[in-house]
Amino acid sequence: MSQVAARYDAVAILLHWLIAATIVACFALGWWMHEGVERAGLDRQLVAAFQLHKSLGLSILGLSLLRLLWRLGHAPPPLLPMPVWERRAARVIHWGFYVLMLGIPLSGWFYVSTQWRGAEPLNIPTLWFGQFEVPHLFGLHRADPESRQQLSAWGLSTHAWLAWSGAALLLLHVAAALKHQWLDRDGTLRRMLPGPARTAGKEPMAPRRRLAAIWLGSLAGLGAGLALVWNLWLSSVFAPAGEGGVGSLPGSEWTVLPGSEIAFAGEHAGEPFRGRFTRWGAGLQFDPEAPEAARIWAEIETASARDGNRLHEETLPQAEWFDVKRYPLARYQSESVSAFGSGQFAVRGTLRIKDRNLAVGPLIVSVQEGRLSLSGDLIISRREANLGLSSDPDAEYVSDLIAVEVRLQARPSGG
Question: To 10 degrees, what angle do helices 43-73 and 208-237 make?
Answer without folding.
Answer: 120
